[in-house]
Amino acid sequence: MTAQKREQSLQDVPISVVAKSGADIETRGIQRIEDLSLLVPNFSVQQDPIGDKINVRGIQSGNNAGLEQSVSTFVDGVYRGRAVQSRFSFLDIERLEVLRGPQGTLFGKNTIGGAVNITAAKPTDELAYSLAGTYTFEGVEELKSEGFVSGPLSDAVRGRLAFMYRDQSEGHVFNEFYGEDSPQIEDGAVRGQLEFDATDRTLILVRAELGDFQLDAQPFGIKEAGPLAIFEAAGAFPVFAGDFGRTNIGSVNPSLDFGSNGKMRGDSSEYMIRVEHELDKGEITAIASFSEYGFDRFLDADFSALDMLRFDEREEYEQTAFELRYASDLDGPVNFLVGTYYQDADLLAEGLTYFNVRQDGATNELAIDTFFNSACNFVVNQGADPTTATPCLFSGAIQAFDGTPLAYTDVNRINRLDQSSELYALFGQVDWELTDTLELSLGLRYAEEEKSARQQAFATDFGTRNPNVALSDDATYLAASGGQLPSIFRLVAEATAHENDLGRNEDSFTWSANLSWTPNSDTLLYARAATGFKAGGFNSFALGSDPDEAEYEEEEVLGFEVGGKLTLLDGAAELNGAVFTSEFENIQSAIFTGSTSFIVQNAAKATSSGIELDGRWAATDALTIVGSVAYVDFEFDEFPRAACTNAQLQVFRISLSQPLATLQQCSAAGVNELSGQGSENTPEISASISLDHRVELFGRYELNSVLDVAYQDDQFRSGDLDPLGLQEAYTKANLTLVLGPTAGNWDIALIGKNIFDEETFSYFNDTPVIEGSQQFIPDQPRTVGLRLRIRN
To answer: How many angstroms separate the CA atoms of 495 and 476, rounded?
Structure first.
């Protein structure tokens, strides 16, 4: 493995790391990084409408295109810090390593929680090939094909070509509105590699990877109906609240309707040249890479059959990076690694939100005014005072200028972040053998990063990108209403038109110190301390005119870890363990406003402490048992301004007699004080056990049975720790049966995931505008697939 940028055995690496081989991942039919969550305690990946969240030991990133990852992915040493960049990371890999704890010295920024280090399978000296096709027929309907061919092209040149293609035509959630299953996914990728022996001491690897992905329909559902129950009771449309298999999301308004509840189209590419030159006393490695992606995403943002909101998102990203390092191989007690890193990146993140404010009877739609009118009538019939009830006040506000030239109308909002960044870093590590059994490693990294951006928000005519200044003219509306009502752009879209040029420079020192003791060849004990940081930046969703609202500072961590790695039973077993604690400062928090945007702030301090154990035992020649268990106590030391839950917001309004008080105001007042509380997506206890059994049949065939069982404790699915978003503890099991000849030239596999059909969900959030309603993403039910594979 290469967790310390040198080839080492897992048992020789003095950090908490879990490694999985490419063969293990292929056997189990693991396609995406979130599928790995069940096998690695204190590591999880959750789906999200904006971008997947990677969580290690309780730390993760929030919802905002401007935020960078807390746990970054690296493929062959190339940094993939954006979630979309990692979409095809599992294509034809040799191994995967999950490094837990801060990795800021050798891997750099945005690894305060850890890192995912992936090594792609390389060209081979002899001809090798594999071709596999999988048909999943229960739970979802999906066809997947994948394969590779590898071998020598000449005495000094080797090549490898790998591909994958997936077509999921039927998902696990049926959308009644459009009469279709969701999600529907079609994606594919191809990777080509050439490896050259330039000299006896110089190896050159050239890699190119192309990917294309599209998503039609997303598996959203309504967890809690809230005010949507009014429309269901009136027979307007069903809601299916709490249903893991059915939903009803869509729109009849032609500007909002794009034929689905969610779509995404995108492509990515990455190119890399790696040069390794062996010297008498070490090795020089140089890596040059270029990565890019672009996507367009469309979302029915009211998550219902109402015709209120649509959100379109576009991202374009380019990254150029260079790394040069030297790793010594000296005869004496001291060895070292020294290197430099440069990265240039450009990001364009744009959100276009449609606010359908006024009902158009011609399309029989249910717009924002329809929603508030209906909600007002309902609460009044229940005995509420129409002069103080929140939906009645919103309804009245929307109609306040009717019959005048200032009458509120539909509006679009564009928020855009156009950002450029440059990063320079120097890093090094010294390994000093103090005695034959005691080694001290000291690492240091210095980095400078400069970011500049233009961040803006402005109003456009509904259904278009044509700017309309009148729709955001607060001064005119405030004057006409005696200072009571702003423009529709501010009232409903929460924004003030602005354009700000932003810039920031930050430099950082991160360090690591590791003392390891190997009293014998079967035992490694170590103590480690390390720092890390997550870069500051700009809020792509900043909607206020104050430029300070758009900027947030870097996040920092100081971590300590004590652990050991034991080889037992003459090599038949391994047992590894670690006790850790990490202290986080200035945690970047993205707070949902309750309407359609996020506020980013450095809001919290936290401590994450716990223990991790994992082991492997070759119980017999035929049976291998792998197990792991982890306990984490993640606690916010300070988090005075966390996002309020909807229930807290209602109490806050009553206490102030301000029925129009916002979630931002509730948060700023410190109502949801999370000091002493935990974090989302962080179970206290997580564990897994795998049984891998092989038996010979009829003297010429082998049956390989793999059973994986994983347990996760209770965990919240939203950052405000809303009790409605609590995912209770669960146990899931996957079973794979592989039958083929002992020669190994073909096999057939039955792959079952979540075989006991456990109902769980991985995402939960308040529904924009519809206070009291929450949406969620149900996880896949039991799926069963059949795979046929041929190989040499």
So the answer is: 16
Helix/strand/coil percent split, the chain, to 5: 10, 55, 35
Give the residue carrying structure tokens 């005495």: 155
Compute the average pLDDT of residues 263-277.
96
3-class secondary-structure state, position 261: coil
Cβ–Cβ < 8 Å for 367, 395: no
Hey, what are 625's tokens? 């048992």
Which pLDDT score is estimated for 4?
A: 61
Residue 515 to residues 402, 463, 530, 610, 766, Cα–Cα distance (Å): 73, 61, 12, 20, 47
Query: For 389-522, where are the E strands, in sequence order?
Result: 411-433, 438-460, 498-520
- Number of C-alpha atoms within 13 angstroms, CB side, residue 561? 32
98 three-state secondary structure: strand
Coil/strand/helix, residue 374: helix
What percent of the chain has pLDDT above 70?
98
pTM value > 0.85 = yes
Confidence band of 104 (pLDDT split at 50, 70, 90): confident
pLDDT tens, position by position, 105-154: 888 878 888 999 999 999 999 999 999 999 999 999 999 999 999 999 99
Bridge partners, 350 (sequence order): 314, 416
CA distances to 221, 592, 681 from 764, in Å: 10, 12, 11
DSSP labels for 234-253? TTS----TT-SSEE-----S
Spatial CA neighbour of 111 closest among 74, 86, 83, 85: 74
Strand, coil or helix: 11: helix
C-beta of residue 157 within 8 angstroms of C-beta of residue 136: no
Asked if the model's pLDDT at residue 50 lies above 70, the reply is no
